[in-house]
Amino acid sequence: MTLAAALLSLAAFFTPAVFATAPLQLSEREQQIKDHIDARRDEQIDFSAALVNVNSGSRNVEGVRKVGEVLVPEFESLRFATRWIDLPAEMQRAPTLVAERKGASGKRLLLIGHLDTVFA
Q1: Whole-angstrom Cα distance, residue 102 to residue 62?
Q2: What range does the record give for the signal peptide (predicted)?
Q3: Residue pair 82/76 in contact by the 8 Å Cβ criterion
Q4: Looking at residues 46-64, what average pLDDT do you find?
C-alpha cells in the first residue's frame, strides 16, 4: 500500500458523518479515488495492523524506530527524503522521523503524527 492511499483512507475515514446523511453525487475524479481506496481496503487494514502491532510504547526506543522503518519505504516510494533526528539521551525517547519532499512552487502541507503505540 502506498502512503498516498493510506492518507486518502484516513481522510475518507475521518470525514464528518454529517456529510453522509444525504446521498452525495461524486465527481468522476472523486469516484476514482473512492474506487482506489475501496479496492485496497484489505491491504490498508493489513498495513495499519502491521504498524499498531509493533510494541512501540513511548520509552521503547527500538519499537518506535521499528514503526518508522516500516514507514520509510512508503515515504521514499513517493519521493520523500527521510531522515531521523536524534533527541537528547536523557529524554529516553526514539529519534524523530522526518519525511520531506521539496518543491519549487505550490502550497505547503505539514502532516504530523507519532510513532509510539499505547496498548490497552
Answers
A1: 29
A2: 1-20
A3: yes
A4: 91
Cβ density class 9-28: b for 16+ within 10 Å, e for less = beeeeeeeeeeeeeeeeeee
Residue 61 CA to residue 66 CA, distance in Å, equals 9
* Domain around 38: 3-14+26-100
Q: Residue 20's pLDDT is what?
A: 57
d(CA 119, CA 33): 32
Domain count, the chain: 1
Does 80 reside within a domain? yes
Distance CA 116, CA 56 (A): 5
pTM for the predicted model, two decimal places: 0.70
SS3 13: helix
115: exposed, middle or buried (Cβ count in 10 Å: 0-12, 13-18, 19+): buried
Residue 48 lies in a domain: yes
Is 73 a residue whose pLDDT tops 70?
yes
